[in-house]
## 1
Amino acid sequence: MAVGRQDQSSTMLYTAIVFVGLFIIAAVVAVVFYIKAEDWRTQYMTSQQNFEQVASSSDVANISNLVGQKSDDSRVRQLLGYIDNFYTMQTGAMPSETTAEAKMLELQSKHKDVMSAAPKDFGVVMEANDVNGPGIFRIVELYNNKLALANKNIEQLNSQIATLNSDLDASKQGAADREQELLTQVGKLQEDANSVQRSYNQLRDLMSQKADEQMAALIAQREEAINERNKSRQELLEAMSKLTITQNRLEDALSRLDVLKPRPKQDVAAYKPDGSVISVDIQSNIVFIDIGADSKVYPGLTFAVYDRSAPIPTEGTSKGEIEIFDVAKNTATARITQQSKRNPVAEGDTIINLIWDSTATNTFVIAGEFDFNGNGTIDRDGAEKVQQLVENWGGKTEEAVTIDTDYVVLGTEPQILKKPTLSDIETDPLANDKYEASVKASERYQEVKTQAKDLYIPVFSLKRFLNFTGYESLAAKTK
């Protein structure tokens, strides 16, 4: 064999051996890669299934919209953090290291406990699958605590009110007893004063007739009587001082009672309806009311008319006024003397007259100066006109305020005149009498005002008085 052919055969043999070796290596590598690929594919499918249990592909695509902005933690850890925050917001406490399911079950249990503890009148209704239910139990629990505290405070206040009422009753009784005692002492002092005056008169008569010795004895008797009167006056002043202290204590107790439980209005009787309008004749301005002769209604009686559907104003301003001119057994006919154009007298309206009462006689005390017809000038006989109106409508008047007084009517306070000089008296001999009369009128005004306040008697101004009697429009027509 030639050398060249031998070399060529060796090269081809080597090439074949290398090719076979590379083929074997490639086959082995392919088998190994296939096996590894199958393992990776299995791991991928398992991971995909596990991942889909955490979030679907659509959830992953919308993860930012569902969870929020990405934080340093994983999305699952971020959601668990939100659940923990929700738990803390609802309960006010940090959750324990448990599963999210356990935390939600605990919240549901607390929600049921709080709802079952809420009072039935609390207005909280727990319904199944209420999406708002778990978010309110903390507020309900807070208000339950506040309700318990409020009930405790109410019990304490009721106890304080009962104590103050007891103190008030005792103070009133003590004041009444003291007033009666002082009246008795005043009567006794008046008798003593009269006795002293009689003794003085006797002394004056005897002084012109008897000797110096008798005069000295009588003077001694007079001084003894004066000393006795001064002693009685001192006792009266001490009693008045004690009465003032009692009244101050009473005022203090009433002020404390007003803070806890306000007293009813003193003039509540003024708002009591006397009757009502049963029909109205618009063309003739005539109304018919549901009280008549059996209720002691008579022609000339006036009433203020108030809206049936509104509370009576404090100042007594009415929507109209009527005057009776015909009376039947149980009804009466009246003409409308004044009414509001926007709100005329209508069926069902209430009528009131402060003075008139079908079952009782109201007692009034009148003090001050009055402009009866409202022309801007004080009427010389204004007080007499008010008194006449009270007596015409079945009431009666007294000079002094007592516990039996029903109402006090106060005008403007009388002005005290300037004290006259000798020249003034020479010009007007009655100047001093007028001055003393003005002083007495002012003192009486203040006394009536103070007594009404001390005895809690309702006080009416002239305008309010006329409003509640339905006589304001007619009073303006008087001269």
## 2
Amino acid sequence: MKLKFALLALVPAMLAACSEAPETATETEAPAPLEVVVPSGDYTLDKRHASLHWSVPHMGLADYVVRMTDIDAQLTLDTENPSNSSITFTVDPQSVAAHLPGDWDAAERGYASWDAEIAEDPKFLAGADGTPITFTSTSVEPTGPSTADVTGDLTFRGMTAPITMQAELTGQLEQHPFGGMPAVGFKATGTLKPTDFGMDLMGGALEDVVNIEFNGEFHGAAPEAEAEGEAEAAAE
């Protein structure tokens, strides 16, 4: 009987313990601010250390990947207020590198190569006249210490539509070991819908999505170049 009463006495205590709110977990600390070592200013893409790939899902099987080999970009970087930064891209539509293996029947296809067909055919890039593909940013929205959403106008095939790229600062050097200039590295990924640009999707063989990935190194002005420019400005 004493044991029974003892157990009954424990029940309220156990219920009270179960009803107590669990200890609040410590809040996740906000990531530390990024220490920026490069100055604000204009930066030019180092084409030797840059790549632009795009891929498109093919028949639900695998992504077909193509590289564009002639790209250029100009970056205006505002380290104090990244939202004021901007970037412009230019891509030669004829600089396609698909690396198609095997034989190619130019007479049957009507193009010298598979690269030329992708670049020039109206159902693809329609770049026979050499009109460049361009991207001009319209807004930069920081999403973290080293990331941002970069929205801009993409123009090709005579059409313009907005796209948003997810950009990441992948590295920075106050002084590049080759040249002494400030340097930054960026990676950017995003998607576009080919139908927004009037592209033929080959009867459904290609999905209505193109994945884009850019990696590039940008260089600012070398200290001696800046000094020369200031001297010339003062002399005028």
## 3
Amino acid sequence: MKVLKGEHIHLRALEAEDLIFLHKIENDEDFWEVSNTITPFSKFILKNYLENAHLDIYEAKQLRLVIARNDSDAPIGFIDLFDFDPFHKRAGIGIMIVQSEQNKGFATESLNLVINYSFTYLQLHQLYANITEDNQNSIFLFEKCNFKHTGTKKDWIYSVNNNFKDELLFQLISEKC
């Protein structure tokens, strides 16, 4: 699908071969705060997840795509659509790129591909992202892709440092209808 292929990366469906990468990412405690996870996932659970990853977004209400380099097909991250609501024509969006591949433009390229896919193929009216106030890289990324800060959820995220963080709501509303 050309709409999911960029200059340096492409977005693809999860494959059985992604189990080790998925296990590594889902069990990385550095990502738990943004993914609302507090316990590790077993390979068995993730294998079952992969077996059901083929479900249509209209059935599962979510879609996880692997961000892979064009030159190697190696996975470098994930981009997710979640809380998909076809009636209200909206979905949440989240992105994660491994540390070694950050600051190379891959997140911007991935986000732009999913924005185009969401508004063109899924006929969505808006995408939204929830970002903690201290995640400056994500704030910069979403603002760069024209998302607007439209709200703040005060003391929304309880962190492992025993304090609360505000969560910022960013929205991108399509001008197509």
